[in-house]
């Protein structure tokens, strides 16, 4: 018996089993079609799960980043201000890693997560540009420049924040 004969024999056996068990086979097919249809057409809201499992990790990393940048803004000593700023840039990269590790399940969740990834990619790029400019010009007001660029980027993050909020 070669492979083709074996496949034919297997197919005949399956068809004979379906012929003998018409009712269970047809009910199984109906259940499969119905559950597949419901799974693909239902509007699952994953935000409660996201807020419970994913958001704490992101919030912790973001809080560290924002507190470091705020410390840089409030510091009076130039050397410490620069240290806080550089640490803030490192923390922004850490937030980006945390955000990229998380994967929401729904299309709207993935879209919102992409917005947050985009925000932190742009934050990283802007901080790198500011650091480069600072290396060329020691009197550069990098904190004021960061505030301006952050204000430009915040609408991107706000789209993610709006998705996170509970619906009324």
Count all strands and give the number.
0
Structural class by helix and strand composition: mainly alpha
Strand content: under 5%
Distance between the termini: 66 Å
Please give a structural write-up:
The chain has 168 residues and is an all-alpha fold. The chain has 2 domains: 3-41; 47-164. It has helices at residues 3-20, 22-41, 47-74, 78-101, 107-136, 142-164. The chain is elongated. The model has no long low-confidence stretch (mean pLDDT 90).
Short description:
By secondary structure, the protein is mainly alpha-helical.
Sequence-ordered SSE layout with sheet pairings:
Layout: H1 3-20, H2 22-41, H3 47-74, H4 78-101, H5 107-136, H6 142-164
Helix pairs in contact: 3-4, 4-5, 5-6
List keywords for this structure.
mainly alpha, 2 domains, 168 residues, single chain
């Amino acid at each position: 018996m070669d492979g083709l004969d074996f496949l034919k024999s297997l197919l005949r056996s399956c068809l004979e089993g379906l012929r003998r068990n018409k009712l269970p086979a047809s009910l199984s097919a109906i259940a499969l079609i119905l559950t597949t249809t419901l799974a693909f057409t239902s509007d699952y809201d994953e935000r409660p799960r996201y807020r419970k499992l994913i958001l704490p990790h992101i919030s912790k990393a973001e809080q560290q980043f924002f507190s470091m940048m705020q410390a840089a803004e409030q510091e009076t000593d130039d050397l410490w201000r620069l240290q806080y700023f550089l640490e803030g840039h490192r923390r922004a990269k850490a937030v980006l890693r945390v955000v990229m590790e998380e994967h929401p399940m729904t299309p709207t969740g993935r879209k919102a997560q992409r917005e947050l990834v985009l925000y932190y990619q742009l934050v990283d790029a802007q901080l790198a540009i500011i650091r480069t400019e600072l290396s060329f010009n020691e009197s550069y007001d990098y904190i004021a420049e960061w505030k301006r660029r952050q204000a430009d980027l915040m609408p991107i993050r706000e789209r993610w924040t709006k998705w996170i909020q509970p619906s009324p």
